[in-house]
Amino acid sequence: xxxxxxxxxxxxxxxxxxxxxxxxxxxxxxxxxxxxxxxxxxxxxxxxxxxxxxxxxxxxxxxxxxxxxxxxxxxxxxxxxxxxxxxxxxxxxxxxxxxxxxxxxxxxxxxxxxxxxxxxxxxxxxxxxxxxxxxxxxxxxxxxxxxxxxxxxxxxxxxxxxxxxxxxxxxxxxxxxxxxxxxxxxxxxxxxxxxxxxxxxxxxxxxxxxxxxxxxxxxxxxxxxxxxxxxxxxxxxxxxxxxxxxxxxxxxxxxxxxxxxxxxxxxxxxxxxxxxxx
Length: 278
Known about the structure:
Layout: H1 7-52, H2 57-84, H3 87-107, H4 111-139, H5 145-170, H6 176-181, H7 184-195, H8 201-206, H9 210-220, H10 224-243, H11 252-269, H12 273-277
Helix pairs in contact: 1-2, 1-3, 1-4, 1-5, 1-7, 2-3, 2-4, 3-4, 3-7, 4-5, 9-10
């Protein structure tokens, strides 16, 4: 029980905390919808783009593969950006790049411009994929952290479905530019939504802003004791991260976890599902 609150006040506080946490996870997870949408929409759009731009099979492949290539670049750059500017700023940056990429894709006069635009969208996907799950995890209470982080993956699949539905809607008018441009709408919602979200407590502690971290946790945790406990946990994690290095990957426990993580990623992709999606 939070100090100084009677049972009714505690219940109201708990409801407010749950609402704030779920809202935060939902807004950040919206970046997953953009991931899925921009990955999936090219499947329908390419049916018309290849005719308008007279693309060969190789040129179609280049346009399509520009997104995963950009995502790899964005993911590599995102970790440093997320540590220096913050997870929230990284997600907002992704939203801005999503908007620019979708607008440029919709207005592209040729395949070269379309490829550059899609490459930028890929970078935004890399930013979002690296920053959004971390942001959600740092905002969520430990007991529901796993469930809330899955918002991102669920949003990816919803985004893919949305892309196919939008493609189906604009197919009768060969509206591939509309298909591309619709991606601006969720990107705007993501950007505006994240502007209203707080910075993650994990990043605030990492940059020495403990008071701000406590204020943020005070809105998304039920009790002062939970805030104190989590601040201590974050401080320990930050200290361990600063003292770590590449050599730790060779330690048996870490090596096992690394192999499992890499294995999961490999087997989720080697099934060929991306071929179906694209």
